[in-house]
Amino acid sequence: MEQEALAGTVIWLTGMPGAGKTTIARAFVARMQTFAIRSTMLDGDALRAGLNADLGFSAEDRMENIRRVAHVAALFGKEGYIAVTATISPHPGHRASARQIIGNESFVEVFVDTPLHVCEMRDPKGLYKRARQGEIEQFTGLDAAYHAPVNPDLTVRTQGVSVDACVQQIIEHLASKGRIESAWRPVQRQLRVPR
Ligand SMILES: Nc1ncnc2c1ncn2[C@@H]1O[C@H](COP(=O)(O)OP(=O)(O)OP(=O)(O)O)[C@@H](O)[C@H]1O
Ligand SMILES: [Mg+2]
User: Which residues make up the environment of ion ligand 2, defined by Cβ < 5 Å?
Assistant: First the structure.
């Protein structure tokens, strides 16, 4: 039987390009499946490919992007899911707006904290390289500022830390806030073999 998370939990991951948001969100959702907790990932790139395909990277469009992601996350939260969003959301105003849309009691701001030189070395999409070559303007982390959260609900450092350990920190934070039962164990999936 599926367990429900306490209604309305949205984990809002924020961090620079290449910080590890998508990787952590995906691993988190996979981990929740083993607990039979319903969760879903809302990835900025995937949403920009469809729902937000009309938006660019101007200040207005970035804000509109966040507004839409926050509303979709809030809908999942209301259905009892843990929604994990993976957007850079570089400005405090983005996070504040998301918090307001989702509701303070449901909103968990997680700063995926990875130093710029590590993000640039990882460069999973080759975007830092292209930005350095002048092919991308206003790239967050280089010529557009990433404003790190001053007081996030949780900071997860990824440098020299495994993805699993990062996910575990988020789980422990949720458990400490009573958002998931810390005692839940992975569901034992056993095949019943008829005698
Ligand atoms: N502890 C960790 N947590 C997350 N990612 C890690 C960690 N250690 C190494 N990595 C690596 O860092 C890279 C992070 O890339 P990812 O696409 O998740 O970043 P992102 O924050 O989603 O970037 P973007 O904003 O451009 O979408 C991956 O190649 C991942 O394997
Ligand atoms: Mg990503």
Answer: 21-22
Q: What is the pLDDT of residue 188?
A: 52
Q: Which pTM value belongs to this model? A: 0.92
**Whether 97 is catalytic:** no
25: Cα separation from own chain's centroid? 5
Q: Averaged over 82-95, what is the pLDDT?
A: 97
What SS3 class is residue 133? coil
The pLDDT value recorded for residue 191 is 57
CA distances from 132 to 2, 56, 112, 137, 140 (A): 47, 20, 23, 9, 12
58, 89, 106, 176: which is the annotated catalytic residue?
Answer: 89
Please answer whether residues 69 and 76 qualify as being in contact, where contact means their C-beta atoms are separated by less than 8 angstroms.
no
